[in-house]
Amino acid sequence: MCGIAGCVDFTRDFAEDRAAAADAQAMTDTMACRGPDDEGLWTTRHAALGHRRLAIIDVPGGRQPMTVEDPASGETRLAIVYSGETYNFTELRAELEQRGHRFRTDSDTEVVLHGWLEWGEDVVERLNGMFAFALWDVREDALYLVRDRMGIKPLYYYPTPDGVLFGSEPKAILAHPRAEAVMDLDGLREVLSHVKTPGHGGYRGMHEVRPGSLVRIRREGLSIRRYWQLEALEHTDDQETSVAHVRELLDDIVHRQLISDVPLCSLLSGGLDSSAITALAAQQLKAQGGGPVRSFSVDFVGYEDSFAADPMRDTPDGPYVRELAEFVKADHEAITLSNDDLMNPDARAAVLRARDLPLSLGDMDTSLYLLFKAIRGRSTVALSGESADEVFGGYRWFHDAEAVNADTFPWMAGRIGPMDHSRSFFDEGLLAELDLPGYIDQSYRDALAEVPHVDGVSATERRMREVCYLHLTRFVQILLDRKDRMSMASGLEVRVPFCDHRLVQYVFNTPWSLKTFDGREKSLLRAAAKDVLPASIVERVKSPYPSTQDPAYEKAVRGDLADLIADTAAPVRSLIDVDKVRDAIDAPAANATTSLEVDRAQMENVLQLDAWMRRYSPTIETS
Question: Is the distance from CB of 9 to CB of 163 less than 8 angstroms?
């Protein structure tokens, strides 16, 4: 896991032009948080590739940028900077060795390089993993930017008149003098609507490599190829076979993702998803003769004792976490956070630096960052249960007929948290110019047009295929992006087994009746993992990532916002309705659900937006 950055300019020679190389180095330096262990910069006539390394596999030998020579001429043919993991690299290496390739290291990056030498860009279809990489082909004078199928690892690019800038995060691109931090109406729409349009980079002129895509940059221009996307295939397996195949896939996925040359752990919430991954990891470690699985959870001071059920969460996580840890004999540690931790200015600033955009899930972002920071002091790799809800149909709105049949994204239909635009604090004129409902509707129509279908199914099955597709291509990107940014800000690699493309593709094509065969959510996963879990966790209802319920936290947020709008020089004042914000601050807290899930979310969005404007000094174009 690493951070990559660099640039291509067909009018400059990076090997000779010190200023051009210095710009590339400045871009690479912004990725230090993603790669605290090592750094490198490789330059050639028209390209510079920068790398910051978080050493996971082949710690001494996997330095980057990495090159490979042409077998015939002995001259450098390819150079790569790579972020992520290729989990099937040992099989690919064996195949390449049979074809005559010889390796200098034990790293997966070198396998990808030799694979490209052997199969060209078609090698990407052979890779199983989470990755984003930039590869320069010396002979072709071409740059290739490649991202994994599900978009687990981020990769951005910014075309210029003479080439391109690229980086793992926007901050790397914005460090280059040719990049401008301009947020236009489309950028604001993207940020405020929470739709995560594939390929949209937030800033004007910036793009994100779409999941499962390859971007080729040559002197003649730029082209894009999708090498993977969800397919509609007839599902012929019966229930027993489907459950068995899901389990077979999960066993193989967890086995592959346990590979690491540094300490590894799991993230445990006590829900079905994280518990299944933790239990399967514990089972495999025991079979391998290893020690117990190490696990971590997050909690808040006094949370369990004063917990109040709300529409999203029926129970606190703590009792289930402890039960699972005892059941699998995990070496478990709970990271407990206080209000002071959540309001710590340094932590909140770190979240903003990690995000690069005025996106905020408030205390849930800060607590996730602090959890990962604490884990990083004890481990370098963590397995997560993220994305199981998107794959298996776990969210409550999957099972709410009104949300499912609403003519919009199902998660929007519930008007949840920061996505409730009716309670926005933004200026009414700006909201009219943005037309967020229209933007969301168009994004929804565009997404629906992509959905692959099979013939001869009921209207219900057809709609549920659409709902699943929307989650697997839109909603999951919001969460994966958050997970990547918060973890890499601490130099922690988080792996997401449920995003293995084989599992995603298989479950996507199982009929909805199979996904809910026991009358509940995530039937396939529950049945596939029940033998390694306590009955209480098998039966537990979905509970999202926790958010503090302490009224003192909301009071502190209100106080920060009051201080902000009292500052007549605050940048955000030009975008908000100050009177509306002041009324919300002065109003007594509403019921717990409204207060904690809506008003507070809007307040934290305003705070984040102001902090972003102060840090990045962006040009805001609202017309």
Answer: yes
DSSP 161-202: TTEEEEESSHHHHHTSTT---EE-HHHHHHHHHT---TTB-S
Query: Torsion angle, CA of 10/14/17/22, rounded to 10 degrees?
Result: 120
For Cα atoms 363, 5, 612, give the angle at the middle one, nearest 5 degrees. 35
pLDDT on residue 1: 61
| Pairing, β 156-160 against β 207-208 | antiparallel
State yes or no: pLDDT of 593 exceeds 70: no
78: alpha, beta or left? (left if phi > 0; alpha if psi -120 to 50): beta
Do the beta carbons of residue 483 and residue 384 sit within 8 Å?
yes
**What average pLDDT does the structure give for the chain?**
93
Listing DSSP states for 198-227 in one string gives TTB-SSTT-EEPPTTEEEEEETTEEEEEE-
Give residue 219's pLDDT band: very low, low, confident or very high (50, 70, 90).
very high
Q: What is the C-alpha separation between 455 and 37, in angstroms, rounded?
A: 52
Q: Pick the catalytic residue: 2, 7, 33, 499? A: 2
Residue 418 pLDDT = 44
Tell me which residue has tokens 């409730």.
420
What is the DSSP code string of 98-133? HTT---SSS-HHHHHHHHHHHHGGGGGGG--EEEEE
Cα separations in angstroms, 577 against 112, 186, 288, 364, 427: 52, 20, 60, 25, 5
pLDDT tens digits along 277-292: 999 999 999 998 888 9
Mode of pairing for the β-strands spanning 142-147 and 156-160: unpaired
In terms of Cβ atoms closer than 10 Å to its own Cβ (0-12, 13-18, 19+), residue 322 is middle
| Section 503-532 average pLDDT | 97
> Is 33 a known active-site residue?
no
Cα separation, 546 vs 363, whole angstroms: 9
Residue 514: exposed, middle, or buried by beta-carbon count in 10 A (0-12, 13-18, 19+)?
A: middle
Contact (Cβ atoms closer than 8 angstroms) between residue 376 and residue 505 = no
The predicted structure's pLDDT at residue 14: 94
Q: How far apart are CA 325 and CA 329, in angstroms?
A: 6
Q: Residue 179 has what pLDDT?
A: 97
Q: What is the pLDDT of residues 317-337, one digit of tens each?
A: 999 999 999 999 999 999 999
- Contact between 547 and 307 (Cβ < 8 Å): no
* Pure H helices in 435-577: 436-450, 459-470, 476-488, 501-508, 512-515, 523-529, 535-538, 551-566
Q: What is the pLDDT of residue 30?
A: 96
- Confidence category of residue 421, pLDDT binned at 50, 70, 90: low
Dist CA 526 CA 522 (whole Å)? 6
Q: What is the pLDDT averaged over residues 429-439?
A: 94
CA distance linking residue 592 with residue 332, whole number of Å? 31
Q: Quick check: 410 pLDDT over 90?
A: yes
Amino acid at 572: V
